[in-house]
Amino acid sequence: MATITAAMVKDLRERSGAGMMDCKKALAETGGDMQKAIDYLREKGIAKAAKKSGRVAAEGACAACVSADGKIGALVEINCETDFTASNSDFRALVKKVTEHIAKTNPADLDALNASKIEGKKTVADLVTEATATIGEKISVRRFVRYEGAKIVSYIHMGGKIGVLVALDGGSDELGKDIAMQIAASNPSAIDRASVDAAELEHEKEVLRKQALEEGKPEKIVDKMVEGRINKFYKEVCLVEQIFVKDTEKTVQDVLGKVKVLAFTRYQLGEGIEKKQSDFAAEVAAQLK
Hints:
Among the domains are: 1-51, Helicase, Ruva Protein, domain 3 (Orthogonal Bundle); 59-163, Elongation factor Ts, dimerisation domain (Tetrahydropterin Synthase, Chain A). By secondary structure, it is an alpha+beta fold. Helices cover 46% and strands 18% of the residues. The protein is globular and about 70 Å long. The longest helix is centred in the last third of the chain and has 19 residues, at 219-237. Helix 1 crosses helix 2 (20-29), helix 2 (20-29) packs across helix 3 (34-43) and helix 9 (198-214) packs across helix 10 (219-237). The chain has helices at 6-16, 20-29, 34-43, 83-86, 89-105, 110-115, 124-135, 173-186, 198-214, 219-237, 252-256, 280-288, and strands spanning 59-66, 72-80, 117-118, 122-123, 140-148, 151-157, 162-168, 261-268.
């Protein structure tokens, strides 16, 4: 049987909004599996949809670079170990250099990026290794995306905690910035209903169906209830159906008009990375022994 720790209960509480005892029970029932525990709470009607922010964030920065003509853009996440290093001028210079290199050279993937020559001298991997030695912390390029050929707009929130890159088929710079900020704030997972991930949709339908049955609803009307609730789900995850954050009387589609969103990427710093938890006082006490 999996050991359920206080940290696991705390994490589930933060992600689900459910009570401590409900979270503890959910984790016990699901063998400590966080995602299954969230589904369990939702099926019981105890929790809302899981927050997409995921686990504890690693440090570092998300950064973007868009060409002067707005036709090429890159977004990257580079990680380090502490927030102190994340604000270090050497680290920020490295992030800027790598982001601009991605925009300029269009590497196929992370392996190609790390092997590529930067400024015609050393590889990106060498540059990162040197920065690791100089700064004294492990540094790694985690992920990147590059768009070309459309109207590219970027938005960086809170100094690099969230980064967004969006491609539009037209529109003004102001509209592009508004859409990028919308994506940063509301975290959609798809542009429209047609682009919702099939597995994500089926998972949501299954959770909603079990939720309705738990509520005691007759099975013959459950499917209709699920259909109605899926429409609400679409309004949360589809960008064009979301309420526009700057004017709640409008949807994003209202704001876009005839302009279409071709693609977007949203990075949240450290999303999905487990950060080692440490007790600083205990570490100091251990050093004094």
